[in-house]
Amino acid sequence: MLPCVTYKNKISMILSMTGFGKANIEDEKHKIHIELRSLNSKQFDLNFKTSGILREKEAEVRAMVGQALKRGKIDLSIYYENLEDPAIPTLNKEVINRYRTQLDALEQTIGNPSDDTLLAVISRFPDVLRSERRELQEEEWMKIKALLTTVLNDVDSFRHQEGKSMETDINHRVSQIDRLLNTMDPYENQRIINVRNRLKERLAELEQEVDSNRLEQELIYYLEKLDITEERVRLQNHIRYFKETLESEEPAGKKLGFIVQEMGREINTIGSKANDSDIQRIVVEMKDELEKVREQMLNIL
Fold first, then answer.
1. Quick one: 188 and 59 in the same domain?
2. Do 145 and 267 fall within a single domain?
3. Threshold 0.70, pTM exceeds
């Protein structure tokens, strides 16, 4: 029997890529609302929505979010309004005078409209109103940046909480694979006996003289082809390495995914070489547990 892999209890370092956070500030000077959602993704993919005044800070925002969250499909929206200095559009007098000149030239055709009617008509024309671009002040940016940091911390806490739940489930399933691997022992020993007896029975049915030494050599060669000891040992080592990596203090989702691939390869090889219904049944159960681990791996940072 192979030794079962054990691991120590620890604080979870597994992080989920799923997260959510939002925060608001509204006082007599400012109105700020920030909301962030994160889902699993192979890369860092940020969709950033904001008002025009914050566009100049997009590179800095992307750097902050990327450093904090590393990876994931992220939707971030930042709404900001300065209540002391609202951006009120102003009349473009030059454009209005040009429209007025053209309308005056048409008076003989359309009559002489009142000034109120004329103003109502002109106000609907393009470019009559224009917005003055206001620069974002450092004090405003520091307030927005502090609130964004709060939101990122909330998302990080959410990811840790989700990660702790995921780690518990993953550890349970990998331990199940380890347990199932060790239940193969009695079937493995009996399988060799069954294969040997089956071959001898087939040869006896042929009613031919057989060189016993040559037969023994062929049996050894054939049984070596069916031997799964090496695959079981490698699978055991992969399980051990998986649990060691799970205890890493750095995000290791991609590495864990690679180890799961190797575990699957060994399980498949055991199934193809087993030639035994009882071992095949165990292999199916191991595959079922491993598939559930794979699903969890998709959302681990």
1. no
2. no
3. no
